[in-house]
Specification:
The protein has 296 residues and is of the alpha/beta class. The protein has 13 helices and ten strands. The strands form three sheets. A five-stranded mixed β-sheet has the order 2-1-3-10-4, sandwiched between helices. It has a three-stranded antiparallel β-sheet with strand order 8-5-9, sandwiched between helices. A two-stranded parallel ribbon has the order 6-7. Helix 2 links the parallel strand 1 and strand 2. Helix 2 crosses helix 11, helix 3 packs parallel to helix 4 and helix 11 packs across helix 12. The longest helix has 30 residues. The chain starts with a helix and ends in a 5-residue tail after the last helix.
C-alpha cells in the first residue's frame, strides 16, 4: 500500500470512528430520556410561570417536554383528547367549570397546585376612590370610555364578566376582548397618564406587585367566591409515565413563589424558560418536595 493510500485509509477510519461515536451518543441520549411530556397552557402570566417551572423540573428529572400555547377552550379539549398530557391552570370550581364538565370522563384532576386566587374587575387605587363597586360602573361609564378592557375571548374570566354585565345591568359598558399582555399594556398606559380604567383581573398576577390596584366590590358575587388552580392530566398518564405523573401530582406552590417568577418574567428581554430554570436551581428544597418518590 502506498503512503498516500495508507493516509487515506487512516482518515477514513477516523471519520468512521467519529461517526460511530456520534451515533452512539445519539442513541445514548435517546435512551436517557424517560419519555415526552406535553404541557398545554394559555398565555397568562401566572400560567407561563407555572408551566415553565414544571417543564424545568421535568427536564431536570430526565423527561423531554413539549409546550403548546392555546386558547383556554382548545387547551381543555387537548388534555381531554390526549393531545396534551397535562395543564397546570385549571381554575376551579367556577372559571373553568364548564370546560371541566365537557372532558371530565377523560381527565384526572390531581388537585390544587395554588390556593388564594381571585377574579373580578380591577381599577387603579385612585379610581377606586371614585368608583368602588361594580354596581356603580353603569352610572360612571364615561370615566372608562364606556368599556371594560378584557383578555382573550375564550377565557372563562370573560364569560364570567359577561355574566357580571347582565347581573348588574351594565348596559352602558361594553366588554372589549384583547389578551393578557394587551390588557396590562392598556393598564400601564392609563396609570402612567393617571387615567381611569377598568380591566378584568385575577390573582395571582404580577400587576398587583407593580401597581396599586383594587378589586371593585362584588356584592352580588357575580364572580363567585375564591377559587383554586388545579393540575389536570389526561387519563392514562400515570400508567405511561408514572414518574412524571408523580411530579405533577406533587406540584404545589404559593402565590408568593409564583409572584417571584412572574416578576422575573417582566424584566425586559427576559426568557420565561431561563427564568424558570434559574428559580428551580435557587429553590432546591421546594423542588425536592415535588420530586420526592418519583423515580421510575
Amino acid at each position: 500500500m502506498t503512503r498516500n493510500a495508507m493516509s487515506q485509509a487512516v482518515r477514513y477510519g477516523a471519520l468512521m470512528m467519529a461517526a460511530g461515536l456520534s451515533m452512539s451518543a445519539g442513541v445514548a441520549q435517546a435512551q436517557d430520556s424517560k419519555g415526552t411530556v406535553k404541557l398545554a397552557y394559555v398565555e397568562w402570566a401566572s400560567t407561563v410561570a407555572s408551566t415553565n417551572v414544571v417543564r424545568a423540573v421535568l427536564e431536570e428529572q430526565g423527561y423531554d417536554v413539549e409546550m403548546d400555547s392555546l386558547g383556554a377552550a382548545v387547551m381543555w379539549q387537548a388534555v381531554g383528547t390526549g393531545d396534551a398530557d397535562a395543564i397546570l391552570c385549571a381554575w376551579l370550581p367556577t372559571t373553568h367549570g364548564d370546560y371541566y364538565k365537557q372532558v371530565k370522563d377523560d381527565v384526572e384532576d390531581l388537585g390544587v397546585n395554588l390556593e388564594g386566587t381571585k377574579l373580578g374587575l380591577v381599577v387603579p387605587e385612585y379610581t377606586y376612590e371614585k368608583v368602588s363597586s361594580i354596581a356603580d360602573l353603569n352610572d360612571n361609564a364615561d370615566l372608562f370610555d364606556d368599556k371594560i378592557v378584557g383578555i382573550d375571548p375564550g377565557a372563562g374570566l370573560m364569560a364570567q364578566t359577561e355574566n357580571a354585565i347582565d347581573e348588574y345591568g351594565l348596559d352602558n359598558l361594553q366588554l372589549q376582548s384583547s389578551s393578557g399582555p394587551a390588557m396590562t399594556s392598556a393598564l400601564a398606559s392609563a396609570i402612567q397618564n393617571k387615567e381611569d380604567i377598568v380591566v378584568t383581573g385575577w390573582t395571582p398576577h404580577w400587576m398587583f406587585a407593580r401597581w396599586d390596584l383594587k378589586y371593585l366590590d362584588d356584592p352580588k358575587k357575580a364572580y363567585g367566591d375564591a377559587e383554586h388552580i388545579d393540575t389536570v392530566v389526561h387519563k392514562g398518564l400515570k400508567e405511561r409515565l408514572p414518574g412524571a405523573y408523580a411530579i405533577l401530582d406533587n406540584f404545589h406552590w404559593t402565590p408568593e413563589q409564583m409572584g417571584e417568577v412572574m416578576l422575573m418574567n417582566q424584566e425586559e428581554g427576559s426568557d420565561p424558560y431561563e427564568n424558570a430554570k434559574k428559580w428551580v436551581e435557587e429553590n432546591p428544597d421546594v423542588v425536592a418536595e415535588w420530586t420526592d418518590g418519583t423515580a421510575e
